[in-house]
Amino acid sequence: MKKWITLLCMLLFLAVLGYAGNGMEKARETAGELLDQEHPRIALTFDDGPHSVYTEKLLDGLKERDIRATFFLIGKNIEGNEDVVKRIQEEGHLIGNHTYHHVNLKKLSESQAEEEILLTCNKIYENTGICTSFVRPPFGAWKKNLDFEITMIPVSWNVDSLDWTTENTEKIVKRVVKDVQEGDIILMHDIFQSSVDAALQIADILKKQGYEFVTVDELLLE
After folding, report:
1. Assessment of whether the complete model's pTM goes beyond 0.90
2. Which of 98, 189, 190, 197 is flagged as catalytic?
């Protein structure tokens, strides 16, 4: 109630200030922008793709809902799915790096770890023209000091859907919606039908609760 009272007062104030003719319209636009800024923001992220079937289905659902997400791609999975990668980019989603073979970087030498990341960066660049700055190390295992050699931003998560452990849509949805808070990064995968179904249900539920879905760069860099 206080929010709407404040907005109403602002509308009247802007109108009185002399927004002649289209003054109230401008005031409404400004009020709407302020209201939008008050929406709590969260990020949906998907690992292990691209997948020729499930990533496409997920993209369809996200497009219908006007939601942008972040996709951390495995380099070797890009081969044969180049059109999917281009679609991810064209529809406004953020593309990140998830190594070439989905390996634990801490168990590799520095040169091997760099190669895993750079090979995937090159694959992404070849298909999109983008030099991605974001990497999600598999298992959350970022090799110490590797970021001094490679200019990348490691991205972790706050809410783990554990979708790969159950492949049960209902359980995945319940796990995420009960834990999510403003500013959270949700970890999911786009290689299972159950994950796609759960992600879209989660999106519908959280949008009704007033959440705005953004890409991880919008959370981390703004």
Report:
1. no
2. 189
